[in-house]
Input
Amino acid sequence: MRSRARSPPPTSSVSSPIASRRRRSARTAFLRVAGATTSASPTAGYVVVGDALCSFNPVYGQGMTVALGEAKALDECLGEGLADLGRRFLTRAAALIDVPWTIAAGEDMRYPEVEGRRPPGFSLMRRYMERVHRAASRDPIVLKRFFEVANLLRPASALMAPSIALRVLFAGRDGLEASTERACQAT
Ligand SMILES: Cc1cc2nc3c(=O)[nH]c(=O)nc-3n(C[C@H](O)[C@H](O)[C@H](O)COP(=O)(O)OP(=O)(O)OC[C@H]3O[C@@H](n4cnc5c(N)ncnc54)[C@H](O)[C@@H]3O)c2cc1C
Output
């Protein structure tokens, strides 16, 4: 790193301003497209899918799953005919996007540097998720459920199911930690 810092500056010069295609909010792009297709617009006649519709933070590994869900939804919409296709598809796509978006945005918003209005109940949910993380490190049942939700196999509400919530709220040592200890003692 240090030798790199001492290297001479590049001799070539930049001939034009550097253009960035970083989007401030992928969600904004989605809403704009969703709104645009409902009126006469340049997007009329096109169906936007995948990352072009809504791109997720890759850290959470959700984009391909959502894109596949959208492909399936588009197939179903096409099976129902062409009339009003764009709006019908976007309604289904919005439902597919909402949960993973909420999971990812909720995680991002834990950081105070992240701009944006926190939704009502956010801090309560954040505290609950902290307990989920703690419980998941001890209890294989909570861990399994956490991964099912994170991998979009179950809705986020599955983390609040009474059987899971009880384990989360009263997470004790009777879980993975205890069974690991037992396994260590047995060897
Ligand atoms: C680093 C990283 C890690 C990721 N990890 C995961 C993960 O673990 N799990 C997960 O589910 N998702 C992950 N994703 C997200 C996932 O890759 C995307 O959500 C998914 O690929 C979106 O599919 P898509 O078809 O919409 O777009 P893309 O896969 O980007 O396909 C778009 C295609 O269009 C082509 N194209 C672009 N412009 C033109 C043009 N003008 N003419 C012709 N072709 C063009 C591109 O070359 C590309 O092949 C990750 C993304 C990144 C960046």
Observations:
- The longest helix spans residues 85-108.
